[in-house]
Amino acid sequence: MTRSIKKGPYVDERLLKKVLNKKPGDRSIIKTWIRSSVISPEMVGFTFGVYNGKIFIPVLITEEKVGYRLGEFSPTKKFIRHGGKMQKEIETAAKQKEADAAKAAKASPASKKK
Prior knowledge:
Oligomer: single chain
Helix content: 25-40%
Strand order of the largest sheet: 1-2-3
CATH class of the largest domain: Alpha Beta
Number of helices: 2
Strand content: 5-15%
Largest sheet: 3 strands, mixed
Structural class: alpha+beta
Number of strands: 3
């Protein structure tokens, strides 16, 4: 559910204080664990290290990101790939195509030299 319009967006006070204490051209990363904080216009141009449960992911704040939450740009789950026999066949076919293309690219300049 969204937050009430009467209350306004949630911006953590400590995080906002950190932003206001920094200079606008400062490129240092502001580390934060507060993923639920909404990005405000004062944060534009700063880089935040948003904690995803394991590491801090650097997020550069731009005009387009205002209004979103910090946690939206720091995924907590890492997608590896879908597995199975069919997926393995697709991957081997793709590798074979790449190998054939590389061989063809090497062979074509050699035949032009003759």
